[in-house]
Amino acid sequence: MKITFICGSNRRNGNTDAILEMLTGALAAKAGERGMAVESEVIHLGSKRIEMCSGCRACFERGEAACPHKDDIASLAASMQACDLLVFASPVYVDDVSGLMKNFIDRLAYFCHRPGFAGKPAYVIATTGSSSAARAIRTLQTALITWGFHLSGAAGFVMGARMQKTEAKERFGKKIGGIASRLLRELEASPTRQPSLLDLVVFQIQKKAWLKAGIVDGKETYDYRYWKDNGWFDPSCSYFSPAKVNPLLNGLARLAGGIAGLFI
Description:
Layout: E1 2-7, H1 15-34, E2 39-44, H2 58-62, H3 73-82, E3 85-93, E4 96-97, H4 99-107, H5 110-113, E5 121-128, H6 134-146, E6 150-158, H7 165-189, H8 197-213, E7 215-216, E8 219-220, H9 222-229, H10 247-261
Parallel strand pairs: 1-2, 1-3, 3-5, 5-6
Antiparallel strand pairs: 3-4, 7-8
Helix pairs in contact: 1-7, 8-10
């Protein structure tokens, strides 16, 4: 099993790096105790070539291969799809995610239209000097849930301008250990995990949206065909993946999706 960490900080050996270093260490130790084989990979967005999104809509209308930017974004998306769990980490800049992380989200916006991470678990981390990490966490979670991810949780760390690693370990060691245990439980549960109510509601809302807006001038859009080809428009389909769905949660999700569909 593999966990991939996406680090949205341009500053190496800073606060965000320190937290991820602690977390990968805790994961290795706890995985060993459980007899689990877990591989960790940290991807630093600052070391990748990611051009600014130009908003041309080519990825929406003709598919991601039509993007005019030929950089590292396609290989990054492939790495994300190849792992079993993802952790997204960003420092807080002006009360939100870093520009590096935001542009990364923007370049992968086609996943909001064509969810490519059906049921895959994701965890969100934000580090901050002194302000709240809530908005940065919310920005990441909002993107990830529309990409098809199952949100496993989130954590914020208030660390000042540059906390020493020894202090970070003393202050956050127990918290990091708890996150590591949670991520390992997510990996163990992945094959049999039931979608949450939030997972099901988001699926139903997106389904209603593309059923309503997916045909333009009598022609199926690229996104509509993607949903159609995956069988997600089938009335019996309750979620992106053929997971076991709680009937009560499914009923509530369909009701919420129907209500939301009136306003889309």
